[in-house]
Structure to design on (207 residues):
């Protein structure tokens, strides 16, 4: 009897973790947006937790820092808002999954959730996200509606995870999407090329 009970509990735990994992990596559909005139620069996961030798080599970080700095200056010149999406893992299952699959993952109230020094002071708005898709909480939807933004220029990390899911969610809602290649860090360049091809096929521009 006890082994049967333990087996059921193990099965339910496995199912719970599987469902949570699927939720973490999916892109939300959202509601289609009406035409909007504005453009915003979106900086994804430019945080202390990820901006280390453990995640990206020095040439990659230098390239992305320079490109993002250039894009921020361009956005300010054009009077376009800069929005930083900051990851904070929360909840038992997401934190457990992140701890074992994402080295150095930033947890809610952790010391490494802040924007990395090269990117501090760049954002006009900071939105906290809980999964790879920055639209999941609805906060980004609301902010972009208030700002009347219909086009997103995307930079940050990681090209195969948070950048990919957020870009997909934006396309699902009808945003114009531009991926700024030099301003995106990817842990797997080959996989990122496949992501670019897939998103480009749905209308995203790779610039």
């Amino acid at each position: 009897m006890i082994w049967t009970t333990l087996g059921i509990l193990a099965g339910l735990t496995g199912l719970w973790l599987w469902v949570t994992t699927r939720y973490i990596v999916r892109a939300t559909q959202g509601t289609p947006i009406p035409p909007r005139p504005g453009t915003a620069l979106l900086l994804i996961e430019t945080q202390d937790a990820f901006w280390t030798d453990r995640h990206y080599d020095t040439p990659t970080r230098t390239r992305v820092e320079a490109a993002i700095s250039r894009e921020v200056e361009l956005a300010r010149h054009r009077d376009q808002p800069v929005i930083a999406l900051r990851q904070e893992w929360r909840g038992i299952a997401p934190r457990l999954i992140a701890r074992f699959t994402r080295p150095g993952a930033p947890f809610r109230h952790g010391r490494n959730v802040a924007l990395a020094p090269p990117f501090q002071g760049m954002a006009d708005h900071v939105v906290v996200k809980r999964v790879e898709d920055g639209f999941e909480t609805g906060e980004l939807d609301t902010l972009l509606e208030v700002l009347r933004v219909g086009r997103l220029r995307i930079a940050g990390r990681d090209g195969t995870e948070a950048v990919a899911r957020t870009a997909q969610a934006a396309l699902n809602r009808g945003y114009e999407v531009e991926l700024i290649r030099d301003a995106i860090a990817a842990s797997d360049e080959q996989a990122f090329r496949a992501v670019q091809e897939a998103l480009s096929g749905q209308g995203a521009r790779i610039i």
